Amino acid sequence: MIACRDKLASDLGERLIVRSLDGSIKKGTIVLKNADQGRNAFQSVTLLETIAEFGFDACIGGARRDEEKARAKERIFSFRDEFGQWDPKNQRPELWDTYNTRVHAGENIRVFPISNWTEMDIWEYIAREKLYIPDIYYAHEREVIRRDNGILPVSHLVQPRSGETVEKMMVRFRTVGDMTCTCPVESHARNAQEIIEETAITRITERGATRMDDQTSEASMELRKKEGYF
User: Fold this and answer.
1) Model confidence, pTM
2) Closest to 151 in 3D by CA, of 131, 138, 163, 165
3) Who has greater pLDDT, 148 or 112?
């Protein structure tokens, strides 16, 4: 994924700004209880620090309303206050294609241009435009373990616990995120057309099937977004 990001930035000749949780940990603004602790919940800290560092008025994201219930409450232009917080009850009306982009110092707008797209729309677009994407999104054989109703890839951050068995399985990732909580799904789809056919019959949302941190509570994503999560 990182190699793909760097290649696209180079091909487009764009300036690439990278900030990471490791940087926030070094500054002491993020403190982990232990090295194995999941980092996904801390992403808001690094994001808000970066927005403040560069004074961004707007941040563009790729969230879609079909991913998760809280994201279905979003606007295409989603307002954040001076603390980076999201209040779903205090969002601006969007009439046709008219958007209120006014912000005061310290406030920002999160913009989701493909908010009304579905996972199927994404894959049909990838197939039509023949876009290059990382192979991790396609089916590949991988060592995994089954944990808490999900599948986790074995890695330096995820090791089998007592009683867990390492299996080799054909899987693909519907979304990519924190390795400690992002699950692949069983799949033999090796190209965009096969994923389109697979997506047409799935009945589990993208994040519902792949993000263990979203399964702790139906409100878990909404609570994180109120704290500044994208």
Assistant:
1) 0.85
2) 165
3) 112
